[in-house]
């Protein structure tokens, strides 16, 4: 029996959920290791004990109770607590309470909710514009006006298409959570990324220069994902450069990393915004983004691609001078 009890104790200690068993008087007769840790600090103990006692009081009436509570830390944590009366011969003989840390789940729910709200807003804008333009065209007879309105409809449709494409691209990269890494040179992905922005660069008369270290070694990359990341960096650099500007994509390396940098001579990024530019739909300048047609998803895509490659990305920027985004890729990729 002692061995069985020890085995049960080990099993309960292995759970990620705090488990407390109380007798009929509400005295804790067992706490697993998670529960012991939860009640270990004076501040956490006071708040958790208060919530725990309210659960036990309700369970004493024979009720099954579920309750949320938060410890404000730092860091702030969210918990889901459940209490169940233990019944023997139709009588309550004790209680079992479980307390689960749901902080990550709550954060994911918040991110998901914000994402849906942002997507709805971003899609609503071009759809609303196209609806208004269509209504105007239905009552307009002037050919010149109709031509201008048609051009506006086409522009909004392209904008809507870019949002959907970026959403699908981001969804694919996020859902995979990894990359199909194969050791190869960077010439192919660079050539393809530069080719994709050629039309945009031509329209703005922006020169795109590639400066590649000929001694750069092969590196483990997912071709599709890396093309997407470089395309988004180049596209941003061109969009936020002045007419006739200059963008440089350079490749350098040291003993540990291959560095891919995209440098522009554009408007730069205020220091207060640098920490947030990789968030979905975050824009430094809302008005300029509407003019350039940016979706606010490009840098988020870049961040996820870099994470999938176990690399990192850095930003150097000065307002009025330009920005440099650098992707650091490990030469020797290791599972971490």
Automatic annotation (TrEMBL):
<dbReference type="InterPro" id="IPR036097">
    <property type="entry name" value="HisK_dim/P_sf"/>
</dbReference>
<dbReference type="Pfam" id="PF02518">
    <property type="entry name" value="HATPase_c"/>
</dbReference>
<dbReference type="InterPro" id="IPR036890">
    <property type="entry name" value="HATPase_C_sf"/>
</dbReference>
<keyword id="KW-0902">Two-component regulatory system</keyword>
<keyword id="KW-0808">Transferase</keyword>
<dbReference type="GO" id="GO:0005509">
    <property type="term" value="F:calcium ion binding"/>
</dbReference>
<dbReference type="InterPro" id="IPR004358">
    <property type="entry name" value="Sig_transdc_His_kin-like_C"/>
</dbReference>
<dbReference type="InterPro" id="IPR003594">
    <property type="entry name" value="HATPase_dom"/>
</dbReference>
<dbReference type="GO" id="GO:0000155">
    <property type="term" value="F:phosphorelay sensor kinase activity"/>
</dbReference>
<dbReference type="GO" id="GO:0005886">
    <property type="term" value="C:plasma membrane"/>
</dbReference>
<keyword id="KW-0597">Phosphoprotein</keyword>
<keyword id="KW-0418">Kinase</keyword>
<dbReference type="InterPro" id="IPR050351">
    <property type="entry name" value="BphY/WalK/GraS-like"/>
</dbReference>
<dbReference type="InterPro" id="IPR005467">
    <property type="entry name" value="His_kinase_dom"/>
</dbReference>
<protein>
    <recommendedName>
        <fullName>Sensor-like histidine kinase SenX3</fullName>
        <ecNumber>2.7.13.3</ecNumber>
    </recommendedName>
</protein>
<dbReference type="InterPro" id="IPR003661">
    <property type="entry name" value="HisK_dim/P_dom"/>
</dbReference>
<keyword id="KW-0472">Membrane</keyword>
<feature type="domain" description="Histidine kinase">
    <location>
        <begin position="118"/>
        <end position="333"/>
    </location>
</feature>
<dbReference type="GO" id="GO:0004721">
    <property type="term" value="F:phosphoprotein phosphatase activity"/>
</dbReference>
<dbReference type="GO" id="GO:0016036">
    <property type="term" value="P:cellular response to phosphate starvation"/>
</dbReference>
<dbReference type="InterPro" id="IPR035965">
    <property type="entry name" value="PAS-like_dom_sf"/>
</dbReference>
<dbReference type="Pfam" id="PF00512">
    <property type="entry name" value="HisKA"/>
</dbReference>
């Amino acid at each position: 029996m002692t061995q069985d009890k020890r085995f049960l104790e080990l099993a309960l200690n292995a759970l990620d959920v705090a488990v407390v068993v109380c007798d009929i008087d509400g005295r804790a007769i067992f706490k697993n290791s998670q529960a012991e840790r939860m009640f270990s600090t004076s501040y956490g103990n006071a708040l958790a004990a208060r919530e725990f006692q309210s659960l036990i009081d309700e369970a004493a009436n024979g009720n099954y109770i579920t309750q949320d509570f938060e410890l404000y830390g730092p860091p702030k944590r969210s918990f889901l607590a459940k209490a169940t009366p233990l019944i023997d011969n139709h009588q309550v003989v004790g209680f079992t309470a479980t307390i689960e840390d749901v902080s990550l789940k709550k954060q994911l729910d918040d991110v998901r909710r914000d994402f849906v709200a942002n997507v709805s807003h971003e899609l609503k804008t071009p759809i609303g514009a196209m609806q208004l333009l269509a209504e105007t065209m239905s009552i307009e007879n002037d050919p010149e006006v109709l031509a201008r309105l048609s051009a506006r409809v086409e522009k909004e449709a392209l904008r809507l298409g870019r949002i959907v494409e970026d959403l699908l691209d981001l969804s694919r990269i996020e859902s995979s959570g990894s990359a199909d890494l194969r050791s190869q040179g960077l010439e192919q992905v660079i050539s393809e990324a530069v080719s994709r922005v050629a039309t945009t660069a031509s329209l703005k008369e922006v020169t795109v220069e590639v400066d590649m270290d000929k001694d750069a070694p092969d590196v483990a990359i997912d071709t599709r994902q890396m093309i997407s990341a470089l395309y988004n960096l180049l596209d941003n650099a061109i969009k936020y450069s002045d007419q006739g500007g200059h963008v440089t994509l350079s490749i350098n390396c040291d003993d540990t990393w291959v560095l891919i940098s995209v440098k522009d001579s554009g408007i730069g990024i205020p220091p207060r915004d640098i920490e947030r530019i990789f968030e979905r739909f975050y824009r430094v300048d809302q008005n300029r983004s509407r003019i350039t047609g940016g979706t606010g998803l490009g840098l988020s895509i870049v961040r996820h691609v870099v994470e999938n490659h176990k690399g990192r990305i850095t930003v150097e920027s000065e307002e009025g001078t330009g920005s440099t985004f650098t992707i650091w890729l490990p030469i020797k990729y290791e599972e971490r």
